Amino acid sequence: MILPVPAYGRESLADLGPSVLAALGVAGEANVLGLPGLPRACVLLVDGLGWELLRAHPDAAPYLSSLPGRPLTAGFPSTTATSVASFGTGRPPGGHGMFGYQVAVPGERRLHNCLRWSDTIDPLTWQAAPTIYDRAVAAGVSAGHVSARAFENSGLTRAVYRGARYLTADALGQLVARAERAIREGERALVTVYHGDLDATGHVHGSRSAAWRYQLGFVDLLARRLAEVMPPDAALYVTADHGMTDPTDRIDIDAEAGLREGVALLGGEARARHVYAEPGAGADVLAAWRERLAGRAWVLSREEAIAEGLFGPVEASLAPRIGDVLAVPYADVALVATEAEPLESTLVGMHGSLIAAEQLVPLLSRKDPG
Asked: Do 102 and 111 form a contact (C-beta atoms < 8 A)?
């Protein structure tokens, strides 16, 4: 299969933040997406709202389905930590170094979980690029981020949302009220709103479940209510960090000696694996994984993945975080590890791959982005 590289610099999630800033009049930002100039912008990021899933359920989401829009590519891997970093910095993954759910800490033979975060990892060092919020505030734009109280002081928040005033909200009504107040502050304002329940529902019940469809209905209502409280001079954009699929087949890496041989660390997640080889074993690990996953996954070396542009341009200092081998299923299969990742291996809905169902996310607008 042809490797579908994300559309960095043209129509990717990493292009949305700078385009919004440019539309707000922030100098030096590129409006790649051609967004209209307005003094206020609110971005609702719905975790797990894939473009293909939304298009498949117009009855469950009539308001969202009525909005003008187009798909963006999330970036690789199509997973939350990577995508929110791409949005929050305006850079592809190769520029911020958040290469997946779990990646190696170079030279330490351990994994760093980019969602749960270790106290030994400094968020400002691990993700050192300035955020869109830093740049907004420096240009005199009021910047706020609305999300759950539980995430307020997390490593991920400090890595990708720093510069914004963090506005806590643990219910849909609070999300709307916080956003309504923040969008009206100052002469120019940027407000982002994060909602994660759709993704959580999909992981537990699957994206083909009744529970997921009903949850989509609540997301639709949230978007409608946000649109209703926006002032006339504000744009509202709705996007997501990734889509989702429900793989019916499993390959248990922990049960196959051939896939564990020569492997020092297994990172990533079931639909986007970083495989870190023991010293000198990289070629053998690559060959073994290619043979086992032939016809089911793209299997590339780190050098091949960088050359193909999967992460966009990769800063040399960040490259060692990437696996020696990348395994990315395109078939209906999950690469689970039941011993090392017992909880993650039970998930029904998954994401991370390059296929359209996981990679494409919506860019919808209350005002046509052009």
From this structure: yes
Distance in angstroms between the alpha carbons of the first and the last residue of the chain: 33
pLDDT score of 366: 86
3-state SS assignment for residue 169? coil
| Both structure tokens of 94 | 């190769």
| Dist. CA 243–CA 240, nearest whole Å | 8
Angle between helices 210-229 and 172-183 (to 10 degrees): 30
**0.85 exceeded by the pTM?**
yes
Question: Which tens digit of pLDDT belongs to each residue from 183-229?
Answer: 999 999 999 999 999 999 999 999 999 999 999 999 999 999 999 99
Q: Stretch 252-281: mean pLDDT, rounded?
A: 97
**Count of residues in the chain:** 370
Q: Select from 264, 265, 268, 289 the least CA-distant residue to 278.
A: 264
Q: Which residues pair with 189 in a beta bridge?
A: 40, 142
Give the pairing of strands 111-113 and 69-73: unpaired
Integer Cα distance of 205 and 316 in angstroms: 40
Q: What is the pLDDT of residue 368?
A: 42
